[in-house]
């Protein structure tokens, strides 16, 4: 049954490649707001029916699932065995699939301490743009045979292949989690987060918003207690709700948030301010969300991101006046085009979702 | 050809940076895998990025193959020179350019030694986590090329998890800035693609690595088992209890004997397997974990458990594991180190298979195992002076790697494919997959001048070998020994 589906997907891709029919690969349709909209001529390739965990051995710390498997199903299975996806993926809708999670490459609050989606990808099975069924990586932690095509899929927005299966490293759930809050100004908070990130404390998430710094501590009870003693601050009882709402953008800050900019910068970047914008900081200062009441000068946002060693994404509120993703240097853009040509010579897979023509 | 190139190179390189006399080339004829040797046509030792740009442009214009080399400690022949090419040593680019303690990063040149980064960061309470066994000597540029790991990578990751930014030169001398000072980047994850690409896609001239806090404390539990299966189960039990040890190493009986004779570390000579399990972190975390590890080892059937009581004892217990390779060198004139990775549950079967092969070939084999992440290093003991023994050893090694693939694993966990495992790539990957690898190579280096002939075999080579591609999925639970 499931192999029949793969054969169907492969046939669809092969046929589309022949006639250069653009395809819009879709899982749970939870992140359709992200990136450029699919071209109007594109035909939907729905992989949400290609579901199921094909292999999971808790003691091997590896799970393998078909791309259409819902993240919620994977996480509830992992939780039964006291394990988790340590990159804490945002869902943005209950229907979110693991394939979409890999393609979008977004990570949640635990990213700064545990790593990003790409850090946990061990292997993939994909269809390339000619419908060839290919395996890369595997189900083991260490594997340096061949180029790392598996991680190349992360954040590629489906432009290099149709994800069929993915193997991920998983980690144990922490024994205890506790959130503390501290009152300070933005400059102090940025310094505080970075300074403590350089100490061996079990800090698993940080966020600064509305004059409050929130820090989540995760680990053995004794270690969490000791870290709280060192850091000071008050216990914030609704920690779980807080981090979930930041991850899912249901937190108040994100509500009237069009347009919403995402600035990924060097963590020690001083406060970045623009008129009529609010900010929420995550990842020890390396992630700055800017919610704008009116559209600020795009160029100044992009320049600030570059100045501080990173890039800016127009996360929500695309209105065709500004590119969504930071434009690439000519040399990098050329490599992107060459790779696209190799993986998808007919240019049919989600082309234009990430960059025009790619 | 060679004299003409030398002349051109000397127009922009000092005389002492261009070597072409036979006796000067000799030291560069192999890397850490000395069974493979090839004298290069020319060796260049650039000191600046500008010089490298000029060298690459010359290679590009004259279609001359070029092989980059770091410290030359690689174990797969990745830096084996090309007979008609230039070997470029990056050893002179050895400066640590910047340490940013607050942002916890270091910007370094490719020839900087792995351990030198941690030594420089240590006063700030920070270090660079990946610690390949050659870390005293190996260079960070080589680590990037091979995606090197180490004994702590289950918890702290490989090179790919610990670098932020690369400055790369393409074969036509163009600069690519890949990655950034932030935690993610727009577009494709080229940082991951470059890491472990074995010098096939570009030349790294600068690396920004992530530094992490030095743990407050580290403590080690050594457990002895009478049965290798029980030792494997103990590892699984530790993981099942929700513990990610900082290091988890296993040695088999023949290794224990070789090491004990060499070092007298106090290992139990009656043991079939010794497990070393380390916990690090805050004092509270370590105390909590060590107590749980102790209980798990006991309930998993360990016959002897020792917990390090101080730093000196911890280092002494580690010393045995770290001396496994020199110990092999002491009991045998030569040894050949393999690098397969397997799902840990197949450990006992694979070891049984190796034992059968060992008898079949009449060659002894020691097994050391990064047990936490399934990375197995069988050391085949042989004598290169006995005619035919090296060939027999290579065949034995090849069969071990094929067994790893059958078990759902891989032919190389951390040493890279290089020249050594190029034939086994035909077994691990299907022709379509290999052809996509060639496509990736062509996207960066259409003429195929960077490290040609390594890492990815031609389809022609695979066809000639008659090697059969095996996909692990289709052989999910094979009764392993089937060679």
Please write out the topology.
The complex is a heterodimer of chains A (358) and B (483).
Chain A: H1 2-19, E1 23-26, E2 43-46, E3 53-57, E4 62-66, H2 71-80, E5 83-84, H3 98-104, H4 111-114, H5 117-120, E6 121-127, E7 133-137, H6 149-152, E8 162-169, E9 171-172, E10 176-183, H7 186-197, E11 203-209, E12 212-219, H8 221-231, E13 234-236, H9 239-247, E14 260-264, E15 277-282, E16 287-292, H10 298-307, E17 311-316, H11 330-343
Chain B: H1 2-10, E1 18-19, H2 22-25, E2 42-44, H3 49-62, E3 66-69, E4 86-89, E5 96-100, E6 105-108, H4 114-121, E7 126-127, H5 140-146, H6 153-156, E8 163-169, E9 175-179, H7 190-194, E10 203-210, E11 212-213, E12 217-225, H8 228-240, E13 247-252, H9 253-263, E14 273-281, H10 283-299, E15 304-307, H11 311-322, H12 324-331, E16 334-337, E17 340-341, H13 347-361, E18 365-370, E19 375-382, H14 389-406, H15 422-428, H16 431-444, H17 459-465
Parallel strand pairs in B: 2-4, 3-4
Antiparallel strand pairs in B: 1-2, 5-6, 6-10, 7-11, 8-9, 8-10, 12-14, 12-15, 13-14, 13-18, 16-19, 17-19, 18-19
């Amino acid at each position: 049954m499931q192999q029949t589906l793969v054969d169907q997907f492969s046939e669809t891709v092969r046929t589309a490649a022949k006639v250069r029919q653009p395809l819009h690969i879709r899982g749970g349709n939870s992140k359709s707001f992200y990136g450029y909209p699919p071209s109007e001529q594109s035909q939907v390739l729905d992989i949400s029916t290609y579901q199921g965990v094909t292999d999971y051995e808790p003691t091997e710390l590896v799970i393998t699932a078909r791309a259409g498997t819902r993240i919620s199903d994977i996480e509830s299975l992992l939780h039964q065995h006291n394990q988790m996806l340590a990159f804490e993926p945002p869902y943005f809708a209950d229907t979110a699939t693991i394939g979409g999670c890999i393609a979008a490459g977004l990570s949640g609050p635990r990213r700064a301490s545990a790593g990003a989606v790409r850090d946990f990808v061990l292997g993939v099975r994909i269809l390339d743009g000619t419908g060839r069924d290919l395996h890369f990586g595997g189900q083991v932690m260490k594997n340096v045979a061949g180029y790392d095509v598996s991680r190349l899929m992360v954040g590629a927005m489906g432009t290099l292949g149709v994800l069929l299966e993915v193997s991920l490293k998983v980690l144990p759930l922490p024994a205890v989690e506790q959130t503390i809050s501290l009152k300070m100004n933005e400059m102090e908070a940025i310094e505080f987060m970075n300074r403590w990130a350089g100490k061996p404390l079990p800090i698993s998430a940080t966020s600064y918003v509305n004059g409050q710094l929130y820090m989540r501590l995760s680990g053995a009870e004794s270690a969490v207690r000791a870290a709280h003693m060192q850091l000071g601050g008050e216990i914030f009882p609704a920690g779980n709700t807080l981090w979930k709402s930041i991850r899912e953008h249901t937190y108040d800050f994100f509500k009237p948030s069009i347009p919403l900019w995402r600035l990924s910068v060097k963590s020690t970047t001083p406060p970045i301010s623009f008129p009529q914008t609010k900010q929420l900081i995550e990842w020890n200062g390396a992630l700055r969300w800017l919610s704008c009441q009116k559209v600020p000068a795009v160029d100044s946002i992009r320049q600030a991101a570059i100045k501080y060693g990173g890039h800016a994404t127009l996360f929500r509120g695309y209105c065709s006046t500004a590119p969504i993703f930071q434009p690439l240097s000519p040399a990098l853009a050329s490599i992107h085009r060459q790779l696209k040509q190799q993986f998808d010579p007919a240019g049919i897979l989600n082309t234009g979702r990430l960059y025009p023509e790619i | 050809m060679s004299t003409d190139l030398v002349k051109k190179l000397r127009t922009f390189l000092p005389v002492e940076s261009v070597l072409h006399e036979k006796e000067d080339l000799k030291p560069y004829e192999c890397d850490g895998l000395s069974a493979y040797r090839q004298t290069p046509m020319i060796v260049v030792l650039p000191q600046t990025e500008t010089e490298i740009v000029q060298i690459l442009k010359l290679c590009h214009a004259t279609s001359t193959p070029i092989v980059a080399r770091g410290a030359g400690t690689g174990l797969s022949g990745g830096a084996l020179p090309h007979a008609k090419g230039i070997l470029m040593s990056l050893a002179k680019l050895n400066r640590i350019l910047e340490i940013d303690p607050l942002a916890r990063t270091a910007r370094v040149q490719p020839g900087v030694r792995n351990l030198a980064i941690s030594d420089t960061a240590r006063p700030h309470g920070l270090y660079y986590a990946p610690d390949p066994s050659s870390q005293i000597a190996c260079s960070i540029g080589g680590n990037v090329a091979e995606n090197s790991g180490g004994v702590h990578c289950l918890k702290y990751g490989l090179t790919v998890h610990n670098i932020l930014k690369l400055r790369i030169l393409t074969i036509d001398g163009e600069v690519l800035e890949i990655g950034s000072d932030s935690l993610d980047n727009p577009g494709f994850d080229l940082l991951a693609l470059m890491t472990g690409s074995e010098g096939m896609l570009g030349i790294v001239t600068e690396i920004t690595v992530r530094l992490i806090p030095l743990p407050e404390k580290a403590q080690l539990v050594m457990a002895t088992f009478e049965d290798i299966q029980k030792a494997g189960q103990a590892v699984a039990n530790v993981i099942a209890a929700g513990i990610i040890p900082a290091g988890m190493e296993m040695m088999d009986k023949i290794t224990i004997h070789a090491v004990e004779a060499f070092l007298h570390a106090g290992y139990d000579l009656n043991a079939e397997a010794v497990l070393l399990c380390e916990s690090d972190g805050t004092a509270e975390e370590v105390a909590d974990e060590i107590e749980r590890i102790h209980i798990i080892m006991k309930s998993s059937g360990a016959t002897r458990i020792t917990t390090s009581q101080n730093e000196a004892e911890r280092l002494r217990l580690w010393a045995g594991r770290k001396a496994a390779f020199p110990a092999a060198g002491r009991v045998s004139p030569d040894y050949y180190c393999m690098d397969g990775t397997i799902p840990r549950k197949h450990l006992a079967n694979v070891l049984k298979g190796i034992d059968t092969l060992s008898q079949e070939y009449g060659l002894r084999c020691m097994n050391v195992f990064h047990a936490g992440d399934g990375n197995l290093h069988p050391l085949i003991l042989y004598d290169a002076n006995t005619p035919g023994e090296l060939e027999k050893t290579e065949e034995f090694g090849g069969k071990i790697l094929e067994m790893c693939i059958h078990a759902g694993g891989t032919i190389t966990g951390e040493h890279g494919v290089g020249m050594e495992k190029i034939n086994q790539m035909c077994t691990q990957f299907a022709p379509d997959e290999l052809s996509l690898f060639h496509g990736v190579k062509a996207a960066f280096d259409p003429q195929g001048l960077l490290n040609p002939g390594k890492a990815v075999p031609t389809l022609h080579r695979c066809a000639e070998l008659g090697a059969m591609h095996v996909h692990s999925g289709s052989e999910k639970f094979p009764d392993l020994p089937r060679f």
